[in-house]
Amino acid sequence: MLMAGFAVAFEPANLGYCFVGVFIGTLIGVLPGIGPVAAMSLLMPITFYITPEAAIIMMAGIYYGSMYGGSTTAILVNIPGEAASVVTTLDGYQMALQGRAGVALGVAAIGSFIAGTLAIVALMLVAPPLADFAVRFGPAEYFSLMVFGLAILSYVTHGSILKSLMMACIGLALGLVGIDSITAMPRLTFDRLELVDGVGLVPMIMGLFGIAEILFNIEGAQQRTVVKTRIGKLLPTVKDWIQCRWALLRGSAIGFVLGVLPGTGSVISSFVSYAVEKRFADDPSRFGKGAIEGVAGPEAANNAAAGGAFIPLLTLGIPTGVVTALLLGAFIIHGVEPGPLLMVNHPELFWGVIASMYIGNVMLLVLNLPLIGLWVQVLKVPYHILFPMILLFCMIGVYSVNGSVFDLYVMTGFGLVGYLMKKFGFEPAPLVLAYVLGPMLENNLRKALILSQGDLTTFVTKPISAVCLLLAAALLLSAVLPALRARREKIALDET
Amino acid sequence: MRPSDIGTGLLGLGLGLWLVYEGRDMGLGDLHEPGSGFILFWVGALMAALSALLAGSAVFAGGGGATGADGSPFGERWRRVPLVLVYLVVYCALLEAVGFIPLTMALLFLLFRTVDPQSWTKAVLYSVAITLTVYVLFGVGLGTRFPAGLLEPLLVG
Questions:
Q1: CB B77, CB A216: distance < 8 Å
Q2: φ and ψ at B66, to 5 degrees?
Q3: Do residues A55 and A330 lie in contact, with contact meaning Cβ atoms separated by under 8 Å?
Q4: How many domains is chain A partitioned into structurally?
Q5: Is the separation of the CB atoms in A206 and A397 below 8 Å?
Q6: Burial of A211 (0-12, 13-18, 19+ CB in 10 A)
Q7: Which of A203, A213, A306, A353 has the most beta carbons within 10 angstroms of its beta carbon?
Q8: pLDDT for the residue A491
Q9: CB of A451 within 8 Å of any CB in chain B?
Q10: What pLDDT is recorded for position B115?
Q11: What's the rounded Cα separation, in Å, for the pair A220 and A11?
Q12: Separate counts of helices (H) and strands (E) for chain B
C-alpha cells in the first residue's frame, strides 16, 4: 500500500504541492509572529481548486515545514519562529554567538530530518491496526470519542480551563449555525442566506488567527536583530554527531509519543526532551551555554511530534490540536471523512499523504541547508511591509473562496474577536476545535439516542464508549485537581 | 477582584442565556428523538454556568488581571488597532462599488502610513507595486474574479 502511496505522492502535481507546502511552511516558520495556523488558513482557499490528495499533502507540508523553519529564527535571532522552537533559543543562539551558527542550523535540519523520518515509519506501523480497531465504532462510541476530543482542550490550552471551556461552548454553538441536518430547520441564521450553510471555516480561522495576530502585533514595537556572525560550515563534525546521537534518538521517541497523545504536541515535547537531555548529560552546566544536545533533542522532538499528531487524525478522525483541527476541516471541505474508514475508502489519500511526508522531509533537508542564506534575508523583511501584505492576503484569500463580501465582514469580525480574546486571556484553539467537532458530536449523540430509544446508559454500557468517557473525565479531572493543575500551569508558564 | 474577568463572565452569561432561549425556541424534543434546539440548549446552559463561575471567582480573586505597565491590557500603540479595523470594514463596504485595484491601493497606502508610518512617497510606491503584482498573480494568473468597480470599462471592456 505504501508503494501505491508513493505513486500518488510522486505525481508531478502532488510533488509540486508538497514542495509549495514545505517551502511556505519553512518560510512561515522562519518569520516570527506568523504561525502554521495562519499560513494554513491563508492557503486553504487555494486548496478548493485542487484534488483532496494535493490539498492535504500541501497543508501537511506547511505544518511540518514550519517546525523546521522555526529553528532558524530561534538560532539566528533568539526569537522562536514557532512556539515549538522556544527551547531551541536557549542553546542554539548561544552556539551562534560562539560562531557555530552553521553547526546549530545543520544539526537542527538533519536532526529534524532523522526524527521526521522515524516518526513517519512509526506512523505507518501504528496507524493501520488502530484504524482496524476503530471500525467497530458506532454513534455512541463516536459521541464519546468526540467528548474525549473536547476534553483534550484542557491540555491544548495554556491558561484557564474555565475560559477554554467557555470558548469550546461558543465553538459548539458556531458549529450548529445553519440548517439542521436531521430536521432541516435553520438555526441561528438571523434570516441571512449567507448563514444557511453555517459560518465559514475559512473566514473564521483567518480572522481568529491571521487578522487577530496582526492586530496584536501592530500595537507593540517590533524589533529583530539577526546575529552578526559567519554562518560557517553547516555539517556538524563527527565529534558533534557522537555528542548528540542519543539526544536525536531520545528526542524522536519522546516527540512521537507525546505527539500522539492528545493536546501535548510539539511544544511540550521539545521542553520534555530538553529536560531529559539535561538530566542525562555528564555536565548539565553546559546547557544554556551552547550545548549541541540542547538543540538536537528538542528539534528532533518537535518534528517527530508533528508526525505523531497525524495518528489520531487519520485513524480516529479526532484532531488533537488546532493545526490538526484545520487539517480535519480541509478533509471535510473536500468531502473526505477522516477516521477508521479513511484507509478503506480513500487508501490513495491515506498512503499518499504518508508517502508525501517522507518526500517532504527530504525536500526540507534540501531546502534548509543550502537555502539558509535566503532564510536569513527573509528575516530582514521589515514588519511594516510584511503586516499590510498579510492583511491583504487574508482579504484576498477569503474573497476568492466564494466571491462574498459577507465573508470579508465575518473575517474582520472574528479578527476583532480574536484580538480581544488574546487580550483577555481567552484562546482561540478550543473554539476552533469545538467548531469542527460540534456537528459530528451532535449528529452522533442524536443518532445514538434514537437507536437506543432514549436510553442514556448506552454511552456507558458499550465498553469503547465507556473507556472514552472515562478518559475524558480523567483528563478534565487532572486539569482541575490542584496539584496536577499547578504542574500543568508550570508547563504552560515555561512555554511562554 | 479581576474586573476584566467579571466583564467577560457577564458577557458570557448573557450569551449562554440567549443560547438557552434560542434552544428552547427551536424545540428540545425528548431523549427518544432530540430536537433541533437540544444541543444548543445544553451548550447554552453550560456556557451560562461556566460564565457565572468565571465572574463569581473573579469577584473574590486577587490581582487586577491587567497586563500593561499602565494597568491597561492594551499596548502603547493600541490606537492603530481600531484604525486598521475601520480601514478593513470600509474596504469591505466599498469593494464592489469602487473595485479591487483602486481600493486595494488606498487600503495599502493607509496601512503603510499607519502600521509603522512610512513616508508618503514610499507608501504610494509600495501600495501601487504590491496591488499590481497581486492583481497579476491572483487575478490574471490564478483567475480570481476581483470586482472591477470603477475600472469596469477598462478591465472588462
A1: no
A2: -85, 155
A3: yes
A4: 1
A5: yes
A6: buried
A7: A306
A8: 47
A9: no
A10: 83
A11: 45
A12: 6, 2
Would you state the pLDDT for residue A495?
40
Report which residue type is found at A247: A
- Domain positions in chain B are 3-60, 80-155
- For A203, the grid coordinates are 473566514
**pTM reported for the whole predicted model:** 0.75
DSSP-assigned letter for residue A237: P
- Which phi and psi (to 5°) does residue A186 adopt? -70, 140
B38 contacts B29 by C-beta, under 8 angstroms: yes
Chain A interface includes B42 (CB < 8 A): no
User: pLDDT tens across A67-98, in order?
Assistant: 777 788 778 777 666 667 778 888 888 888 88
What contacts A449, CB < 8 A, 6 or more positions away? Answer: A455, A456, A458, B31, B32, B33, B34
Widest Cα–Cα separation across chain A: 72
Closest CA to B11 of B67, B60, B50, B63: B50
- Cβ A218–B115 below 8 Å, yes or no? yes
What gap in Å lies between CA A273 and CA A185, rounded to an integer? 51
Distance from CA of B103 to the nearest CA of A (A): 11
Q: Please, which pLDDT band fits residue B156 given cuts at 50, 70 and 90?
A: low
Percentage of chain B lying above the pLDDT 90 cut: 51
> Taking residues A440-469, what's their average pLDDT?
89
A41 bridge partner residues:
none
